[in-house]
Design a protein that fits this description.
- The chain has four helices and five strands; from the N terminus they run E-H-E-H-H-E-E-E-H.
- The chain is α/β, with parallel strands linked by helices.
Length: 95
């Protein structure tokens, strides 16, 4: 059974180099025999995490959708820009 790999970039910019890299990585993974799924986080906008809002309103719909997508894959392959010696805020919020 082929590994199911979820591939995405930690950047929402339309012309992000990290998105281009993630797309290429997904293709390479497929060529190596994996089942790779590329997603664009721009298609799943979620608000910044706020525990009180989640307690009052529940998890945002796109966060639930992303969670289900994450759970149906065996691994994550992430291409992320570096911001202030860490990964992007978008990636932190998503994970």
């Amino acid at each position: 059974m082929a590994a199911r790999i979820l591939v995405f970039a930690g950047s929402a910019r339309r012309d992000s180099l990290n998105k281009k890299l993630a797309r290429a990585a997904a293709q390479f993974a497929r060529e190596a025999g994996a089942e790779a799924t590329f997603i664009d986080l721009d298609d799943y906008p979620i608000p910044l995490y706020h525990g009180d809002l989640e307690a009052a309103s529940g998890m945002p719909e796109n966060a639930r959708r992303l969670r289900e997508i994450f759970l149906t894959h065996d691994a994550l392959l992430v291409a992320s820009p570096e911001n202030n010696s860490s990964v992007s805020s978008l990636l932190k919020n998503t994970i």
